[in-house]
Amino acid sequence: MLKIKCPYCGYRNESEFSCGGEAHIARPAVSNKITDSAFCEYLFMRENPKGVFLERWCHTSGCRRWFNIARDTVSHEIYEIYLMGNTPKTVKGKKAYQANWRRTSKAEAASKTPKRTKK
Amino acid sequence: MRHMQSHRLETNNGTSINRKKPVHFKFDRKEFTGFEGETLASALLAHGVHLVGRSFKYHRPRGIFGIGSEEPNALVRVIKGASAEPNLKATQIEIYDGLIAESQNRFPNLKFDILSINNLFSHFFPAGFYYKTFMWPSSFWMLYEKFIRRAAGLGKISKKHLEQNRYEHKYFHCELLIIGGGAAGLQAASIAAQTGVRVIIADEQHELGGWLLTDNNFNIDEKPALNWVRDTVEKLKSAPNVTCLNRTTVFANMDDNFTIMAERVTEHLSRPFAHLPKQRLWKIRATKIILATGAIERPLVFSGNDLPGIMLSSAIRSYIKRYDVLPGTRAIIFTNNDDAYFTALAIYEAGGFVRCIVDLRENPKSQIITTIRKLGINVKTGHAVIAAHGSRHISSVDIAAYDSEAQAPLSSISHMDCNLLAMSGGLNPVVHLHSQRKGKLIWDERTLCYRPDNRSDEWISVGSANGTFQLKKALNEATKKTTITISKLLKENKKSKIQKNNSVPNSEEKQQNWAPTPAWLIQSAQPHISNKTAFVDFQNDSTALDIKLAVREGFHSIEHVKRYTTTGMATDQGKTSNVNAIGILAGSLKKSIAQTGITTFRPPYTPTSLGVIAGRNIGNLFDPLRKTRIHSWHQSNGAKFEHVGQWARAWYYPQEGESFHQAVTREVYATRNYAGVLDASTLGKIEVKGPDSAEFLDRVYTNEFSNLAIGKAKYGLMLKEDGMVFDDGVTTRLAEDHFFMTTTTGGAAGVLGWLEELLQTEWRDLKVYLTSVTEQWSVASLSGPNSRAILEACLGKDNNIMHDFPFMTMKNSFINGIPARIFRISFTGEMAFEINVPARYGLALWSHLMQIGEEFKLTAYGTEAMHVLRAEKGFIIVGQETDGSVTPYDLGMNWIVSKKKSDFIGKRALERGSMDEPQRKQLVGLLTTDPQKVIPEGAHAVLNPNQEAPMEMLGHVSSSYYSPNLKHSIALALLKGGSNRKGQTVYIPMLDGQEPIEAKIVEPIFFDKKGDRLRG
Amino acid sequence: MAENISRAAFGSAAFEKRRLPIIKKPENIEVAQIELSEILHLGKLNIRCNSIYRDKVSKLIQCDLPLEPNYMSNKAGRFAISLGPDEYLILAEPGGENQLEKILNSSNIAKHISVVNVSDAFCAILLSGKKVREFLSKGCPIDLDPNSFQENQSVQCDIALANVILLCLEENEFICICRTSFANYLLDWCCDAGQEFGILVTKGI
After folding, report:
1. What is the mean predicted confidence (pLDDT) over B636-662?
2. Which pLDDT value is given to residue B983?
3. Which chains share 3+ C-beta pairs under 8 angstroms with A?
4. Which helix (H) or strand (E) element contains residue B190?
5. Other residues' Cβ atoms within 10 Å of the Cβ of residue B935
6. Where in chain C are all domains bearing CATH 3.30.1360.120?
7. Cβ A118–B761 below 8 Å, yes or no?
8. CA torsion angle for B429, B433, B434, B438 (degrees, to 10)?
9. Exposed/middle/buried for A9, CB within 10 Å: 0-12, 13-18, 19+?
10. Would the CB atoms of A115 and B902 count as touching at under 8 Å?
């Protein structure tokens, strides 16, 4: 069982957390029309790398806050824990972030300029 | 009749037994007496009993072989009251008065086992036998399986097994966990003890000391070795920062030093204390781990090496030294190293006759060999035991000059009789816990063993576990590594300091030559015959021949050979077998051992009972059962409960003599015609506060909430991003920036989690706070034509709110002095009010309602009646009409999907082309042709009941009830293209040759289609 | 008016349905080493506010919101417990929660914070005795060593299968706050786990 350092509560057992899967999946705004296939990339496609993976975790049994982890899927080593809204700072984390195909995906481009639903 | 302890020595030197306390026990219904402090194995050997089991596959007679958890053969069943625990190792069971143990895997008894016929046909059971034989035809598997099930399997639990034992869990945190209480472990612990860090030292045996309990005729720190052990243990036990545990096996070493160990707390007692558990599972988070797990002796692989009377050399020495038991009187020693000479000496000193020492080495030289020769013991160097003979016990061996490299005898064979054979093939460090963490192993050519690579500084191996077999060096290593480890720890923790120069205890143990000669397989001149009974893995009955066969059949990777031959698998985890198997494989592949590699050891290190893994998570503690504040009323009014999520909800309230159906019918009828009340406290409730609350709700619901007036309520449907229905409920605007949301009972935690996720990850700019208030409010849902009158009566002088209380609004008031939020909303289709009060008043409100309601014929109804009432109205239940693949359009709820809003969760997904597919399953109503026939929920509908299988399925029935108000069976179903099938007839085929049920597709609403009653 | 009505104390009357006191102990132990009782009618407020408004809230409720997570502060019998970076639980004397709610909601920062009365959603259990840490360690994965979990520290964690907030008052005295619907389960668990040391469950105060 991993020991995970919640940015607010400190080190706790993995069993107190829930893993929310891949991090940094930007939600395309509906108003920025994208094709079905570009939308489905956002909705269905998930990375499953061997090596560094950026993922979201929530401290479910504790403070219920979400945060990001850069974790090695082979060794389980955690390279970095960083807050929501941030991108990784470590060399390994940065590389994983930049190398992800999403950075150039249409869905991510369509996530810009979030709009209020009613105006 | 009690049996004689024929093999117990007179000498009374045994360090582990208490002669003053005889212990009586039974084995296979015979009565025996042993002494306090010894194991079942030792006590049986004291009576000359070697044969204790039959082997797994061939049912060969097997005897006690080792001394501890490495024992592969002596697996027995212990019976206590109504429970029987199988597969316990006789070498680990401490005897107590009244112990009842039985041998296993034999029928009808140990000496005459019917299935030992497998032994005669052993050539039918080679490696991969099951894979090959039962592959084809597959339909025969059913037949084979019965045979295999009976023949195979290890041990049986009692047929009337009733687990009455108590098992507990315990969490613990420490800076240093030391696994193993031998010389190295004790030394590590005594250094750590002085530093004030939290230390646990755990040892598998019932006393600490490890091999020092056996080999101790020298001084450590100027005092007899045993005294050093006792003093050290005493010191550790009195140190406040040290937890010193015996009878405790660390069986799993997991990520970030999370280790699990099982402590046998009262298992060894004849009358355990009732308040203490049989075993305790410790879940430990250790900052650092020191592995001082010692080493296990390797057997030698030759024909007949599994006969009872053939034992590990070190085990024999331990039985003599610790328990005063000489397992045989005429002994032969077979070795490739020096250590076995100490066993010869022990046998000699105990009065046994050492017939001969057979040493594979050509010309070994050391002090102990000289000593042995001086005693006049016959030493044959460059020789090997080629085969052992005997029927149920060893009676003689074949000895010949032997070429280890060529693996062939060099001379003709000479026979020698004996009743004990000690074998010693070198030592295997216990690397299991290192390997479980994916720690790599290094092949050491000099000591011929796999030892840890010592790459990690989270877990550190010392002493024999690290391949450092000499005591002096082991103590030195333990001292140094512990000092370094603790220095690092203290640096991290900035606690007290450690002495840099901890002195190493001076041990005066006699030097041994720890360089065995390689000997993985001893073959006769006809290896194809001798290899057949040359056992590598005793527990899995795999032989040298099996490994060679696997190689011939193309299995070259050690991982494949392991699985194909089952060597090193199962409960044994290759403790004695692994390295020999690798050696034989390497020889067959003409590779080095290092090139051949080693398999990964997996947890648990030793078999662990399911009871201790479950702990107290059993019975009423298995899963929390959540109860509302009104629960006691339901209970005393005879309610039957159903579990929704973790909640206990009142299901129906049968009156005397009423069936389920009658009770539900009465409750439904009463609610439609007079009034009913439901405990709706379990509904999820969330306070939504903050300036962006309305915007947030607009984004998570399909319909619009920003246009909701204060004091008004609205039904909302929530989708996930894939456009599928996720939850529903009514949300009320309490203020401009304040909403009160309700969710389904089962979905409450999931909805809150999902909304929090959106706020924290997706829309971090929105200023909204969510607080769960599910338990803050008790809710009585009052419904039916009389509900208005009842509420008015309850409100008394506060009833002015009733003058203007339209459908889908909310009012604050007092009921009998209790502050209440009252919502006029309805899930039954009747005029209805949901009365929310702070939970502490829940029961008071309920009782008051029942009292006032009496004259209005108010009836309490349960969840089943609620289901019927809402189905009559065609209201969906999320999770019943939906299953994660249903859109609002499929439910015919297009009206709830806003066209105005530019975005909401699920909007884009609903715009996908496939969402308009006319053949999607859509919600319809079904009316059966026979009004009395109720369709089973989950049944499938077809158009043509006479079609050959596989029939074309149209969809399934999601809800189905008998409606007492319509006097007709009704159902809701999701059918392909259902919305265009109104008026069609479908058939629901039934099991067991019953006639299909015929039904007509109708609108999914059966009662008060205009909703007049609702708005009243 | 409302005060005249008997108030269901413990979550779903977990205590009321049992005959108190409950004593479970082995014969060889004379006095129960774990004592458990409910703290009745304790006012509980959930406050959400970000750090900008923290000082203002502290002033209004006359009790400092802790700066660090996993800590609580206590002043004049009121406790402020940190539940996360922007979430706090206030424990107040019975009825005090209404007063605090009014003060906060009528203040000029009311728009920016959220104040929710959760007095009835949670129950508070007082646990004490010299074996209390050992007892809790049977179900609580947190490091309960007296040097690691000290006075004025708080933690949100699980005890067996119930999610709780655990507050350390003194070396051998804790308050355990759990959802009322889990109270029955938690009480069952406590009675079971406490057997070894002897456990005494008494009527709340």
Report:
1. 96
2. 96
3. B, C
4. helix B183-193
5. 21
6. 2-40+122-202
7. no
8. 130
9. buried
10. yes
Report which of B542, B641, B558 is spatially closest to residue B599, judged by C-alpha positions: B558
CATH of domain A3-108: 3.30.2270.10
Q: Where are the domains of chain B?
A: 18-122, 167-295+429-493, 524-608, 631-903, 918-1016
Beta-strand relationship, A10-13 and A3-6: antiparallel
Residue C157 to residue A63, Cβ atoms within 8 A:
no
Of B179, B176, B67, which is closest to residue B462 (Cα–Cα)? B179
Q: In what order do the strands lie in the sheet with B675-679?
A: B810-815, B818-823, B832-838, B777-783, B675-679, B858-860
- pLDDT range class, residue C30, cuts 50, 70, 90: confident
pLDDT digit string (tens) for B530-547? 999 999 999 888 999 999
Chain C hits for A16, Cβ within 8 Å: 141, 157-158
pLDDT per position as a tens digit, B300-353: 999 999 999 999 999 999 999 999 999 999 999 999 999 999 999 999 999 999
Right CATH for B18-122 from 1.25.40.10, 3.40.30.10, 2.60.40.10, 3.10.20.440: 3.10.20.440
Which of B338, B400, B414 lies closest to B372 in space, CA to CA?
A: B338
With a pLDDT cut of 70, the percent of chain B lying above it is 93
A9·C163 Cβ contact <8 A: no
Among A76, A118, A119, which would you mutate to test the B interface (most chain B Cβ atoms within 10 Å of its Cβ)?
Answer: A118
- Indicate whether B154 pLDDT > 70: no
- Measured between CB atoms, which of A1, A43, A117 is closest to B695? A117
Distance CA B323, CA B68 (A): 13
Q: Which long-range contacts (CB under 8 A, 24 or more apart) does A50-54 make?
A: A50/A74, A51/A96, A52/A79, A52/A92, A52/A93, A52/A95, A52/A96, A53/A22, A53/A96, A54/A22, A54/A23, A54/A24, A54/A88, A54/A93, A54/A96, A54/A97, A54/A100
- The shortest C-alpha distance from B622 to chain A (Å) reads 17
Distance from CA of B275 to the nearest CA of C (A): 5
Superfamily of domain B167-295+429-493: FAD/NAD(P)-binding domain (3.50.50.60)
CATH topology of domain C2-40+122-202: Gyrase A; domain 2 (3.30.1360)
CA distance to B104, B152, B155, B812, per residue, from B145 (Å): 21, 10, 18, 69
CB nearest A8 (choices: C69, C142, C157): C69
C134 alpha-carbon distance from chain centroid: 19
Residue A117: pLDDT over 60 = no
User: Which residue bears the tokens 């969402």?
Assistant: B915
Distance CA B319, CA B14 (A): 9
**Domain definitions of chain A by residue range:** 3-108
How are the residues of chain C apportioned to helix, strand and coil, as percentages rounded to the nearest 5? Answer: 25, 35, 40
pLDDT at C203: 80
The ipTM, to two decimals, is 0.96
Largest CA distance in chain B: 116
Chains that touch B (3 or more CB pairs under 8 A): A, C
Enumerate the CATH 3.30.70.1520 domain ranges in chain C, comma separated.
43-117
User: Over 70: is that where the pLDDT of B75 sits?
Assistant: yes
What is the assigned CATH class of domain B524-608? mainly alpha
Contact between chains at B198 and C8 (C-beta distance less than 8 A): no
More confident residue, C61 or C22: C61
In eight-state DSSP terms, residue B298 is P
Class of domain B918-1016: mainly beta
Given an 8 Å threshold on Cβ–Cβ distance, is C5 in contact with B841?
A: yes
* Confidence category of residue C2, pLDDT binned at 50, 70, 90: very low
CATH number given to C43-117: 3.30.70.1520
Statement: residue B503 has pLDDT above 90: no
